Amino acid sequence: MEKKEQLYEGKAKKVFATDDPDLLIVQYKDDATAFNGLKKGTIAGKGIINNQMSNRLMLLLEKQAIPTHFVRELNERETLVKKVRIVPLEVIVRNIAAGSFSKHYGVEEGVVFDKPTIEFSYKNDALGDPLLNFHHALALKVATYRELRTIERYAMRINGILQEFWAACGVTLVDFKMEFGRIADGSIVLADEISPDTCRLWDSNTHEKLDKDRFRRDLGGIEEAYAEIMRRLEEHL
Ligand code: TMP
Ligand code: ASP
Known about the structure:
Strand content: 25-35%
Bound molecules: thymidine-5'-phosphate, aspartic acid
Mean pLDDT: 98
């Protein structure tokens, strides 16, 4: 597979064209940002961990009939993926109150929900990724009714699969963010990444944070936390 011109550079990844119009190469960087890019830093080795973790988790999901963009890992930092037309939504599933949910609704971090909750944000940096509901998403024509229902259904199933997987690793999946896209035939697949950048992962016993909140909140021990969560994954996958 030949790597061709760079198409896009995001905050944490670069995307390259290939000689196949339906396939792209994503390259994971060590750069980290928070608060819509206001806070910048690097987390040494993050790109390698996020690439490998995301790929293994997507394979696990594929085995359970969740379609994803994953095709093949090329090297430590690069993966071949299906080209998608991204649905400009951040789809967030939460099992435990934390982060913006706690802030918006005045719920203490750590309160466990009876059932998972789901929310959408409009993926638009200029607007600061505002929250939006199903009807807003339809009004903005970001996706059709059927696509949104499919996305919700996949998101909840993905949550169940990942919750169970992480529980076996002694890790609680607090919440996480997904992005979905349409492949060439128009069907919806899970895209982007699933990594400690996009999930809140707490040690089940100590509740120690093993994710990007260590960077967002200046908690220190960031590289160690990423290495620890990767070690737990490798023990079980
Ligand atoms: P939040 O509580 O800040 O809304 O974050 C919810 C989840 O989404 C959390 O696991 C971190 C993840 N997330 C991203 O992946 N990208 C983002 O830009 C933000 C704000 C959160
Ligand atoms: N990636 C996001 C940004 O830079 C924020 C985050 O993950 O908290 O804005």
